[in-house]
Amino acid sequence: MSSPFDLTGRVAVVTGANTGLGQAIAIALAQAGADIAAVGRSAPVETLAAVQAAGRRGVWIEADLEIAAGLEAVVAAAVAKLGQIDILVNNAGTIRRSDALDFSEADWDEVIGVNLKTPFFLAQAAARRWAADRRGGKIINIASMLSFQGGVRVASYTASKSGLLGITRLLANEWAARGINVNAIAPGYFATRNTAALRADEARNAAILARIPAARWGEPSDLGGAAVFLAAPASDYVHGAVLPVDGGWLAR
Questions:
Q1: Which residues contact 32 (CB under 8 A, 6 or more apart)?
Q2: Looking at residue 194, what is its pLDDT?
Q3: Active site includes 157?
Q4: CA distance 201 to 2
Q5: Residue ranges of domains in the chain
Q6: Beta-strand (E) ranges in the chain?
Q7: Per-10-residue mean pLDDT for the chain, 252 residues long?
Q8: Which of 32, 38, 148, 215 has the smallest number of CB atoms closer than 10 Å to its CB?
Q9: What's the pLDDT score for residue 68?
Q10: 3-state SS of the chain: helix, strand, coil percent to 5?
Q11: For 162-222, where are the E strands, in sequence order?
C-alpha cells in the first residue's frame, strides 16, 4: 500500500518559489514525489536544482503575478511542460508598510492584486481545467497570522490575507463536491525577506519572540510537512480548513 503522503506522479504549480516559504514548499513537495512548475518573474535556479536533486522534474514558468490577466496561460504552460496539473500552491505575496493615515492607493492596489486577486483567478484557471477534464485537484493558499489579527502599518496586507482566508472557504464550499480541495496554511512569524524589517527592529523582534511559545522564528522548512499533507491523499476529506504553522502564536 502506498503512503497517503506520497505525491509520486503528481504535478504541483507553486508561485513565488524562488526564495523563502515558496522555495521550501516546492522542495518539500518534490521530496514527497511531485514534479514542480515554479511560477514567477525571476528564474528559481536554486529551487529547481533542489527539485532535480530530489529526482523530480522542475520547470520555470515566467509570469508577472501582479497582473491577473493571462493566468490561464500559466496553467496551460504547466500542462504543456509537465503533462498535467494536480496541485496549486498560491504562495507569492508582497507587503507594504505605512501608517494607515499615510497609506497610498498604489501600495493598496499592488498588495491586493498580488496577494488576493491573482490567487483567486489562478485558482479559477486551475479549477476550470480540472472541471473540463472531470477530475479533482488540490489548492493550497498561503494565508497569515493577519488573516486572524489586525496587525499595524500593513493595511493592504491585512486586508488581502483576511480576504484570502475568506476566499479559501468560499471556493471550498463551491468546489468540494467536484473533488477539488481548497485549504490554507497560515504561517506564523518566519525568517524571510518579508520579515527582515521586523527582525532588524530590536524591540519588535523581542516582543514577537516573547509571544511565540516555541521561542523562535520559524524556518521556511517548517512549512514542508503541512504543505505535503494538504497536497496529498491524506487530506482528501479536508475542505476549507486553515492550518496554522506558527510555533503556537495563536494559542497564546
A1: 5, 6, 7, 228, 231, 232
A2: 77
A3: yes
A4: 47
A5: 11-251
A6: 11-15, 35-40, 58-62, 87-90, 137-142, 180-187, 242-245
A7: 92 97 98 98 97 98 92 97 98 96 98 98 98 97 97 96 98 98 97 88 94 97 97 98 98 94
A8: 215
A9: 85
A10: 50, 15, 35
A11: 180-187
> Smallest Cα–Cα separation from 146: which of 163, 121, 122?
163
Question: CA of 121: how far to CAs of 7, 8, 12, 95, 188, in Å?
Answer: 25, 27, 17, 20, 25
Query: Which of 120, 130, 148, 157 does the annotation list as catalytic?
Result: 157
* The CATH number of domain 11-251, selected from 2.120.10.30, 3.40.50.720, 3.40.1550.10, 3.30.1050.10: 3.40.50.720
- Determine the distance from the C-alpha atom of residue 246 to the mean position of all C-alpha atoms in its chain, rounded to a whole number: 15
Task: Give the whole-angstrom CA distance, residue 63 versus residue 54.
Answer: 25
What is the chain's alpha carbon radius of gyration, rounded to the nearest angstrom?
Answer: 17
